[in-house]
Write a structure and sequence with these properties.
This protein is an alpha+beta fold and 426 residues long. The chain has helices at residues 3-34, 90-93, 97-119, 176-191, 222-229, 235-256, 305-308, 321-336, 347-356, 370-379, 390-394, 397-404, 409-420, and strands spanning 84-85, 124-127, 130-133, 139-147, 152-158, 164-171, 201-206, 210-215, 220-221, 258-259, 268-270, 276-278, 285-288, 291-292, 297-298. The protein contains 13 helices and 15 strands.
Length: 426
Amino acid sequence: MSSASFQNRLDDIQKRLEKENILHDSDRRGREGSTPNHGPRRPRNFTTNPSDSVRSSSAPSPSRPRDFTLPTNVLDGPSRKRTLHLEPGTGRTRHGEGSRSYSRHHDSAEIDRKYEEIMKQSGILTIDGKKVQTEINDLDNLGELGHGTCGQVNKMRHRHTKHIMAVKQMRRSGNQEENKRIIMDLDVVLKSHDCPYIVQCIGTFITNSEVWICMEIMATCYDKLLKRSGQPIPECILGKTAIAVVKALNYLKDSHGVIHRDVKPSNILLDEKGTVKLCDFGISGRLVDSKAKTRSAGCAAYMAPERIDPPDPTKPDYDIRADVWSLGISLVELATGEFPYRDCKTDFEVLTKVLEEEPPVLPQNEGFSQEFQSFVKECLTKDYKKRPKYRKLLEHPFIKKYTDQHVNVAAWYAEYLQRSSPMRVS
């Protein structure tokens, strides 16, 4: 492709992003105008001191590039950050007003139906294998853990059993896209109770204004690990991490026909036993004939080339291999301690580099095994048609090597805590 032609493609992407930003802000203003001011009954200590909060990938770090998401104007540099919307929705431009209204009404009815179905289990928590009827006021807030795609996550304690859990709190609103995300997150976690590589849901609370998803507590996410230590994650740990993530993604695809669409270090969690699990399914999507065909969101920094610049922007058409790319970028960042697309002043510069430059690779002179280098190279194959899917990745020598090799992830994490205890997350 000539330089002039490539620049034209970038200009087209810029115009699409700006249009999506305008539409998003319009949705946001409408949501803020319709969101009720009152919340559900909740514990008195529901809010926490912002100074005590630890945010995950939304906070800049002096030791590595910030976790990019598109600002309101992609070319104005780092300003107010928000989620990236890339693929235009078919309901916005391809059909008439009547068709769009029908689609929105149908979607709204489907959302209400799913809420009603899930509400039947609202207030029932599974604690130590037992069903416990619980009021929302029975949970004591112990502080903020981080943020998900559509809500904050707090550490909470069940007052009667003393059980500790992570609770994602999301506000219901008149915004259809956000309600879809909440339903998607609920749907995936409730159905994934049989997967050991996905964070387990122990119950929900649904009121007229909020949705709480109660989940098993995990120790940290990989984004925080990197920020807190300032050091790369060892290959052997990333070997076990890659196994868990690929198996989780493969489970979502095979068992539920779902693509995650937001694979990144802040959505990969670790507990004190050394167990690695995937979380945050708010922007996951349904696969139709193994393809994702809907407008979606995600973090620009980890987004695959085919999602940034689809052949036909009006018909988003990508598959699970977009998540394989995101895994590859995450592994390079975690293994080297640095985000691979450095020295970018705006998120649009990151997107340009993803499209224009050769894919990142692991340095050959830093002790990484040939298996690891090969695995990352395959994940970051720019032509998605040549990029491997999950089943092929599970047969890769890197995955087989660390499937067979004993790695004490729990001991490594305990040692990491001892080394980093004097340090504080910024």
